[in-house]
Structure formats: C-alpha cells, structure tokens
Records
---
Amino acid sequence: MRQDLMSLPKTLAEDVARNLVMVAKLLDEDPEQAYGYSRVALRLASRVASVREAAGFASYAVGKYGEALAEFRAARRMTGSAELWPVMADCERGMGRPEKALAMAGEPEVQRLDRAGQVEMRLVAAGARRDMGQADAAVVTLQSPELASNATHPWTARLRYAYADALLEVGREDEAREWFAKALEADQGGTTDASDRLAELDGVEFTDVLEDSGFDEFEDADEAEVEDVDVTEPGGAKGAGAQGDAERAEASEGDSSAVVAEAVEGADQQPERAEERADEAAGGKGSQEG
C-alpha cells in the first residue's frame, strides 16, 4: 500500500492512507461504514491498485457483488496479479452466475495461485456446484490432499467445515459429524460455527440462563448510575493532537514513505478533510484519480 501511495501528492497520500486503514479496521465489525471510507478513498485516488482492491473488498462485504467484481478487475489489470481470482469467481456466484464461477476454476490463472489461493478456489468451485444443485459433485470437488492433511493452516478449518456441510447435504450424516469435529479441532480463531453444528447433530439444545432471571433490572440500575457520573475528557488529549500537528509542520517536506507511515499511525482520527483535499488536488496539482 505504501509503495502505491508514494505516487500521490503528499497531503493526498495522507488522506488516502487514513481512509484505507479505516476500511481495514472496520471491514469485519462495521462493513457499511468501511464501505463508506472505501468510497472516499476511491474518489481520491482511483488509479491506485490498493485503493481499487480495498474498495472491492468493502463492496463484497456489503453484498454489492457487481461493484466488487468491477473493482477487483481494475486492481488485477493494474497489478497483473492472479491472487484476486478466487474472490472474483465468488462475486460471480453472488451475482447468480455459478456456471461462470465454475468456468473460472478451470482457467490458467488458478495455476498461478499459491496453495492458499488454490484452496480458496476449490471452496468457491464447490459452492458453485451446490448452487447448481450438484451436491455430490461438490463433495468430490472438496476432496484433495489439503483436506486429507493432518497439518493445520489458516484455511484448514474452513475447508473441513465446507466438506462436512457438503456431506450433510447429501445425507452422509455420520461422516459430516466427523468432519465438523475435525473443523472444530482446527478452528483456533473461531472462524466457523462448527461447535454449533455438532451440537445440532447431537440434538443438544441451549437455554439462555439469564432469560427472565431479573438480570435486566440490575443492568438498568447500572446504566442509571453511569448517567449520574460527570465524565470529562482528559486534559492531555488536545495537547497530544497539537503536538502531532506541530511535528507534521516541521516534517512537511519529508519523503513520501514517511508521510504514509504517519498517516497509518494516525488512522484512528476521522479524515474529515478528505473531500476538501480531493477537490484541491483536482484543481491545483493535477488529478491522481481516474
């Protein structure tokens, strides 16, 4: 990302970097807000590959698959990389074109993917098979050396989970339970709901022990107490901001990489001036956007 942004004017690079970092921070917890930041970054610097890629993932996260596909294609044209091929194929699925996604799984670009990318492509292809009503073919698609391996990789839990789900769809319940258990074993980060699926297969029902227990009354009382507390902003906050502004003024002629690094470190500040700087960049320095 920093390499891409070095082609931009200094102040513009700073604003674009802040928006991109906010996209990354919010993509999982608040995809709608992340999407908003991505649109600002796209308006500021649409000719930067990392901006187009970030915009693609933000659009993908909110289900705008056609928009996401256009951004991924643009990023791929700029970089020549094949790494976005699986998510591009999944966008085709999202747009109701599983046959196109399946065709992409057989293209030469797949051979250029690393191992993780090829596993991702296999997951997309299996999903396309299921979209087309070919459940048995989906099971076969997922059978691979990566699935059989006992090693654990970032994609292992998702691959095993997808296989278990495909087995369940074709009525192979015992095998599905076995693979949900294997998915849970590999799922250190909690990326799947394998434990819930196992419980469902075992007929286990969960009850909310806090329901009707009077806990809400205590919660309401705590909230009432909080409302009576006078909270003031720590006095050092403004000073820290002023000091940061002074340091930026002293380093105003620093090289581009330092500017971008500073922008990343300050990404928690809202980029309110982004729109103004986009207009200034377009009128004064020559547009870097396309």
---
Amino acid sequence: MMSQMPRQAALPTCPSCAEPLDAGDRFCGACGYNLSVVPPSPDDHPTLTMNGSAPPAPLESGGTVHEAREAHAAPEAHAARETRVSGVSGDPGVSGGRGAADVSGVSAGPGVGDASGVRFDRPAEPDEYALQAPDPRVAAEAAVVAETAKVCVACRAGRVDGDGYCENCGHAQPRERDHMERESGPIAAVSDRGLRHHRNEDAFGLGCTALPDGSPALVAIVCDGVSSATRPDDASLAASKAASETLLAALPQGTHPQQAMHEAIVAASHAVNALAEEPATAREHAPHQNAPACTLVGSVVTAGLLVVGWVGDSRAYWVPEDRSSPPARLTEDDSWAAQMVAAGLMNEAEAYADERAHAITGWLGADAYELEPHTASFKPDRPGVVVVCTDGLWNYAEAAEEMAGVVPPDASTRPLHSARVLVGHALDGGGHDNVTVAVVPFPAPAQGAGSA
C-alpha cells in the first residue's frame, strides 16, 4: 500500500499573472505587478443579470482561464488597472485621468453599473433611523397595569389573578386581612390570622380626635368574629367600622365618652344585623346558616378619663407604666365561665379549665338574645397603657399580671412595636386563634389630637 505524503501548503501567486511568488516580494518577478496595492475584484459573473448588462461570452473550447487572462492582460491594461485601484484608494499621485473618471462614473446617476451585475444607484442609507414617538395614552395604560398588578410572594415572578393565585406557580396568595398593622398618632394595632385558622375573622378600628375643649381623645375598637356563625369576618369588619366612626363623630360634639361608647356599640350591632337581611330565597337555599355575629371591645382615652365598652369575651387590660403598681382587667366576659364564677358555682381556675369556658353568652348579631352593652369609666392616677385584645391573645396571658409581664416597658411611646410583641407572644404560644391587639397610652398625649 502506498503511503501518502503530507500535502504542502500552496505558494502565493501573483493576482495578475498567477505566477508563484516568494515571501517578501513587493513586485511580481514575471509581470512586474505592484503587490502592495489592493487586489482587483475577482471575475464573478452573476447567474441572472440585474442591470440589463449581458454576461461575458464564455471561453472558447480548448483554452484555460490562465491563457484567456494572459491573452487580454496587455501591459497598458495592467497600468490602467493599477491606476484605477490607486484612484479608489485615494493615491495622492492620481488627481485626474482615467482612474478618477472611472471612480466618479461608478457613483453616477441612476441605472449606472458595471459588468459585475451589481447596481450602484441605491441612495445612501442613514446611520440612524428616526423612531416614531410612543403614544402617551398607551404608555400611561401600561404604567397603570404594571403598578396595580400584584406579584406572587412565592416565586416573585408571576402575576396574581383575580382568585388570589399566582399565574406562574399556582401559589395561593395571603389575603390582605391575614396580617394587618396600623398606627394612628400615639396608638397602634396589629391583627394576625394565627397558625391554625384559614382566615382572619378579627378586625379593628383606630382613630384620634379632639374634644370640644381641644384636648385629645384616642379611640380603639377590636372585634372578633364568631366562627360558628355565617360570614364572621364580615361581621367583625362591619362592627369595628361602625363603632369607631360613631365615636369619632360623637366625641367632638361634646358627647360624654361613656355615652358615646354605648351609642357606638348600638351602631355596631345595627351594622352586623344588617348583614343578616337576605332575600327569602337565599334563606331557603341555606336554611342551616345562622346570622353573622361577632364580639366587640373598645376604649376611649382622654387626658384624664379612661372608658371601656364591650359585648362578648374580648378584653381590655390596664398596665401601669410603673410596673411596681398592680395591673387590672377592665372588662368581664360574657361567657359560660364568667357566669359560673359570678354565681359562685366555680372558682375562676375551675371555670376556665372547663371545655365550656369560652362559650359566649353575649354577642352582636341578629340572633343575639338581647343586646346589653357594657360600659365602664376609670380615672387612673398614673400613666400607663390600655391593652385592647381578642381572646387569641389573652388565652396566652389571661391574668392581668401575666399580661403586664408581656407588655414592653416602653409601650406608651412605642405602641406599634408593643402590639407586634404581644401578637408574637400569642403566635409563639401556639397561635390557635386569630390574634388582634391595640395599645393605647394613658393619658392621651397632646400630639395625638387631630382627625384620624
């Protein structure tokens, strides 16, 4: 078998006569061609004629390309070619003559071309094209959509549809009421869904206003929806809104805070009762549903007076700033356990250890036995805070001393932080229920005045 020899690289050739060249040659040794100039375009003829020029005649049989090139490559043709190339490259030695005329002829009027079949009559294209100005209405609509679209809390990429699920990963989004925080002047409240419930059925209302004499008044309302009732979340929201709005409207007109609290509870009861007003057909389709219901506890704090009002088992606590002074619970539950204690049938520890302890005997709702708003007023002789909360908190700090031990020492100056600490205490304890708490400093500071 014959062995194959390695193929040597082809030697460079002269672009004019195709004779081999040596490395470093500046002129062809056969024809004298200047090798430093730009080589001419190859003889490339298109298959289709683009500008009407006829393709060159084919070579006669028996001849080769090299022989045909040699036949037409007269010395004067080489000189003309060299002059034309020099003129294109801007050779300073060419100021006119045939080279310059050929270059200007290439860029002449329309329809001008050469034998290569390429047109040169195209207008020069600009470096940049002017863009059409965007429609400001379209841009404004896009900005509104981008601003209002909710982004998934799980993948941080998908948009949230109207049902509350991510269009990208399908993750259910937390509802607005799952965790709520609000600060209004010197008072604050925090509400959380907790760790066991599928929704938050608590609600709160806060506000700051001024009495007729210009002194400040602080308002806090906390409501807990009755889970066994229909639409408990709607009931608590309606009650908290109606009660807080009634207080903020009545106090500036000179109504006594305790009377205003009574009227606020009545207004809240009417708001919850209105939720039960359904068409007869709706009641027929769902006869097992009972009326929406909730509990309520509220507080009004002025410069020298503390008023509380309640229906149900949500509570208010007094925690003095000086922790050497005793704290106190300001409300009495409307519950089975409280009735047993009041009747002397059980002591408090036994009653609240019973499984029936949290069965409420008073609430706001159309099916309540009788509305009995409870109100009480106090005149503390020292500064402190009022803790207004649902049983989702006091289940983990039931006694007044336990609640005082959880409230931060700077609660009167940092109410929002304190409310967060109290909610965190309930969640750390198990978070079996919704947790809502409002922290109200006493006396009402002057800077708290103003409309909420």
---
Amino acid sequence: MSKAKARAKQVKGKIKESAGSAMDDTRMEAEGSAERMTGKAEEMAAKAADKMKKATGKS
C-alpha cells in the first residue's frame, strides 16, 4: 500500500472515530480507531520499504 493510501485510511478512521464519539456509538468509535491504527501501521511499512529500496539501491 502506498503512503498516500495509508494516510487516507488514517483520516477516514479519525472521521469515523469522531463521528462515533459524537453519536455515542462505541462500536463505530472502535472501528474508526482500529482503521486509523491500521493506516498508521501501513504507512510505517511503506516508509520502511522505501528506506530498504534506497539502502539497496533498487527503485
């Protein structure tokens, strides 16, 4: 997954989390939190892959 898609997933999760909190819907809030954390992990993985490519000289 690209860094941009991972960031988009984080934003979507944050919106869902906020909406769940505003509507007092704990399930939606938890789903949003999980989606945000998944996006963060995917972003970190994409950054690590980029660093590996640079370190090995591969594009």
---
Amino acid sequence: MTGVEESRVSQDPAEQLAAVVALRRLADQLEDSAVEKAMRAGWRWLDIAEALGVTRQAVHKKHARRLIAMGVELKRRRK
C-alpha cells in the first residue's frame, strides 16, 4: 500500500472487522444474483461451480433451495 492508501484504511480493528463483514455480505449478494442469472440463462450446476472455483455439490447445496423458492427452473444433471 502507498501512504495515501494506508491513510484511508482505519487502524481500528473493530472498523476493519466490520468492513470485512460488509464485504462478505456484498460478495454473497453478488454471488446469489450471478448464480440466479446463470441458471435462468440455462447454465448447468457444473458450469457455475467451475466459474466460482467450487464443486458442483457446493454450489447446489448453497443455492438450490433459494432458487427453487424463487421459481427458477433448475438444470438437471444429464445421465
């Protein structure tokens, strides 16, 4: 970090941790939105998982219930 960047970052651990929490929430919201758009566009769970760098099972477990509740048609795994 340069001197200018360091001056913008709080040195208070409570503020730093609050910022981490806010960033995690934002990242989760962005992921939820992107996964929903991908599924509505016909992506497979495997495609989404690869894009996120996780397993198909992990992305399915995290998002399937929410997407079903939203009425999103989920791609089924081909046998």
